[in-house]
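INFO  loader      accepted 1 record
INFO  loader      residues=252
INFO  predictor   begin
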Amino acid sequence: MNKIKLNYKTVGKNKDQILLFIHPLGADHSVFNKVMDGLSRDYTCYSVDIRGHGKSPVIEPPYSIESMAADISSTFVFDKPVNVMGVSIGGMIAMSLAIKKLIPIKKLILSDTGHVIGNYQLWQERIDLVNSGGLEKIVDMAIERWFPEKFRTEFPELMDECKRMQLKTSVKGYVGACQAIQSANLTDEVFKIENDTLVINGSRDISTPPELGRQLKDLITNGTFRELDGIGHVPPLQDPNLTIKILREFLN
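INFO  predictor   done
INFO  writer      dumping tokens
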């Protein structure tokens, strides 16, 4: 397997406290900009572009969660345990990192994700739409799944930013990531996660609803769960200050 070096952003100078962020499908590292700025005084923060997203290499599909986790371990060499937060597919990648022990991990934050997300047919329909007409075919649907309707109405500029971010994603990268989620079932492996793990879920998340987060928490030995009232699928974008508060409480 060819080793892939991912694009990433880093802020902060406290090398003793490190936080690695992994973004959701159709996004890039900028999802965590405000969260990283809020934590940069006390942590060194890294935020990656997963393969086929942002400025990372576009690899020919199909992808797997395991190969996307391997990308992380070939990009970073950490000499001490780091904290990892993943959102959606980023959470699945974070779980794979912990299950396979690909990097040294201290604590895990799994946001709006699951040991299984959706079903084969759901993802195939999404893949077929993108292959037939590009990201334009699904971008509005994706934004509707990221944020509750009231929030979308109140923050149109953020919605436009998120649409631009989605549309910059390569079709190959998006389809490959969809295929990774489509084929992933971590149900029989998450018991191998030994780290203290916080599972968080927006109460208004329709992609990975809170019940899925509770199920995931129950499968992880040292898992705890927190539901975020009024939040959708991407807490770091909808409420970065709440995300910072939760991270500080859990990591301290």
